[in-house]
Each structure stands twice: as structure tokens, then as C-alpha cells.
Amino acid sequence: MNGLVEQAELHLYEVCSRGPAVFGLDSRITTHRLSDRSVSLLASWPRLVLSLARDLRRRRIDTLVAVESTHALYAVPAARLAGCRVIVWEHFNFHTDLGKRKRRWGRRVAARYADDVVTLTERDLDLWREGARPRARLTAIANIAPPVVATPYGIGRRTVLALGRFCAQKGFERLLAAWALVEADPRGAEWRLTIHGDGPDRARLDEQSASLARVAIHPPRADAFALYEEAGLFAASSRREGLPMVLLEAAAHGVPAVAFDCETGPGEIIARDVSGMLVPEGDVPALAEALLTLMADPAARCRMSEGARARARTFCRDSILARWSALLRLPPPPAVQSEADESAIEQGGRHEAA
């Protein structure tokens, strides 16, 4: 939204306020609340639909973007009542619902009644086609990577870094099982594993790591980018992902990554054996071996560090904003005028989006 504010009048709708945006919101973006308190999306469905529809009409919104498919349940009918275009932006993958029926229902609504569905990966487009047979148009637009950092990669770094929520999805117990194999191998003798995060599995992970000599588990840090500057490798052990920001962050900092090749996400960020290594989903010994192989080969780590930075540039801000501008039929961003011109973007007059 911050990146598109030069091209459109933007409004941010919240079901209820949870305070200022953590990463900052441009002051030109107007925020609106649909409720003064937390509500059930299902129990409050009629009120949410009618309230949002009235406001969309009053503000003459051209396009409504529903962030995350659960919100399609009220956003899509509200947009239909208001007569505006509606885009549902998927942030997981089609097979991930985290046990929420609302998310599955939202995807059905989006597939049938939205104008567009945006996924984070090309692979997820296939999952939507196979699982939903959508009438909506499908487009894959990745997340934006942070700016590439110029700090040279240090071959003397001996830390494997992992970040994320301590829950079943992220699979940190699988990483610790792989690390036990690393500690038993001489190639990993000088290396340590540092994990930052929190969540319901914290106690179990503490117990599992108690027998390991070179593991440290810490709470999340606000200055997480500083951790990448100290890391020699990044490890990702997720069972499922949308498009993991931690891998984009690692790439932008030139940190080679080793990851399970789960259904969506890592395979579209890591260029195999160029910016990191992908191993079969769930193969813990293969994860350990990939880490050990890179630990023993500083030349490969340096080469993959440069490959990671190059890969991060393909997810740069200008490239991703150009794709959103094309989808929203906005004038192209100034920094990517020529790239947008090639897409033959249809330009209109006054544009508004929410």
C-alpha cells in the first residue's frame, strides 16, 4: 500500500483496530474500522457486509482487495452490493487452512464470486485450479523482498540461523533432529544453531534441545535483520508455507539457505544449488547432510551468497509494484514506467482502491 500511494487514493479497512501498523503506514492512506471491538466474522456477517458495502459506495471505491481468504466471506458480498471490483489476496496456500473452516469457505466464495484471486506462488495457482475450478481470474504475485544488503559475506561465520513461530507448521522439531546429526559429524564441529521465535511449542523445543551442545533458542528480536548479518547459513524446516519472508530476508542479506522443499514457497525462492539447497520434504537426514556439505565448503557458501542476492533482486519492490499496478489498472509506478508500458496497462481517470 505504501508503494502504491503515489498512483491511487488508498483506504485501509480493518474489522477492528489493533493499533498502528507495525511496519508503518503512509499518512496519505486513510484507515477505517468496521467495528469498535473484536467480533465473530460469522455472527456479525450481516452487519459487516452492509457496513462495508455502504462505505464502499459512499467513498466510490473502484477496487476492494480482501487480504487473506477468510475475509472473502464478507468482503466479496459487500463489494458485489457496492458494485465494485473485488480481489482476494491469498497469503497461505490452497491446502493450508490451519483447521479453520472459515478459510475453506472463504476460498470457495473467492473462487466463484470474486473477480480475481492473487496467490503468492505459481505453484499455488495450480492448486487453486485443481481444487476450486475457479471462475475468478488467477494471478501470482510474490511478496516484496527487503532491499539487497551490500555487506560482504564472511566465510568465518559459523552460525546457522532459523526464525519463526514455534508451531507444528514451522517444523522446528525436525530442524533439531537434523541438528543432532550435525553435532555428531566432524564437519559441523565449529558451528552453532540459533533459533529465534516463540509459540505454543516452545517448551517442547526447549526439552528437545536440552541434550544438544550447540543450540540456543531465543525470543523474537525487533532488530531481526541484524541476525542475518551474523549468519553463515539459514535453515527452514516448514511443513507448509505461502511464500516465507524469512527466506526472502536471508537472500537479501546474502545468506545461503537450506530448506525442505515443501509444497509451496521455498522452491520459488531458493535457486537450487545456486542460492541454497532444497531437500525432499520431511527428509531429516538430507537436511542435515545439506547443512554439513555447505559447512565444509566455504567456496560454495560464498558463491551461493552472491546467488542469493541475485535471487532476491527478482523480488524487488519495483518489480512487484509493477505487477500490482497492472492488476489494479493503475498508472505505472515512475520507477518502473518502461516495464509497465510493456504490459500495455489500460489507464483510466481517477482510481481508488481499498
Automatic annotation (TrEMBL):
<protein>
    <submittedName>
        <fullName>Lipopolysaccharide core biosynthesis protein WbcM</fullName>
    </submittedName>
</protein>
<dbReference type="GO" id="GO:0016757">
    <property type="term" value="F:glycosyltransferase activity"/>
</dbReference>
<feature type="region of interest" description="Disordered">
    <location>
        <begin position="332"/>
        <end position="354"/>
    </location>
</feature>
<dbReference type="Pfam" id="PF13692">
    <property type="entry name" value="Glyco_trans_1_4"/>
</dbReference>
